[in-house]
Amino acid sequence: MVETEDALKGLLPDLESRKFPGGSNKFPIGGTGACVSNIVHTQGYVHCHTPATDASGPVKAVMAEMFEYFQSMTLPALLRISLPCCLNMCGAVQCSDIGIVGIHRKPPIVEHDRLDNICEIPLAISACPTGAIKPAKVEIDGKKVNSVTV
C-alpha cells in the first residue's frame, strides 16, 4: 500500500520492467476502466464431468490477441469475455459481452484398452447428461475388458 498517488506512479515503471525470461510481463497493469477485463472461464477437464474443451488454451490465445486492449483504455466501456467449457455455461457467459462456448461436434474416441485402468466406468456413465454413454465389454487380445460405447 502507498500513501499518495505520486508514490503509486513511481511503482508503475518498476512493475512494467519486471518480465519473465521469455519477455512476457510478470505483473501486467490493466483490466480496469474502459478496457478488456480478465477472461472468466471454467476449469474444464480438471473439475467438470462434461467438458467439451479445456479453457486454458483458448483463453490464453484470446487474451494474447486482446492484450493491448487490456492495458489501454481505448474501448467505449469495460469489455467482459467468458469461456465456459460446455453447454452448462458455468462460466457466466450469459453475463458477459462476448461468450465463447465449447461444444461437442462429434463423439469422443474411446480407447478401450486404457479406459478400465484410468476411469471409474459407472461414474463416466452417470456423468453423461444425455445418457449416451452405455457400459460394454470389449475383447482386446483375447481378453474381455470393461469399457463403454457412445
UniProtKB/TrEMBL annotation:
Q: Which UniProt keywords apply?
A: Iron, Iron-sulfur, Metal-binding
Key word Glycoprotein present in the record?
no
Care to name a GO molecular-function term for this sequence?
oxidoreductase activity
Q: Sorted alphabetically, which SUPFAM superfamilies does this protein's record hold?
A: Nitrite and sulphite reductase 4Fe-4S domain-like
Which Gene3D superfamilies does the record associate with it? 3.30.70.20, Sulfite Reductase Hemoprotein, domain 1
Which Pfam families does the record match to this protein?
A: NIR_SIR (PF01077)
Every copy of the Nitrite/sulphite reductase 4Fe-4S domain together lies at: 33-109
> What's the protein called, per UniProt?
Dissimilatory sulphite reductase beta subunit
- What is the organism of origin for this protein? uncultured sulfate-reducing bacterium
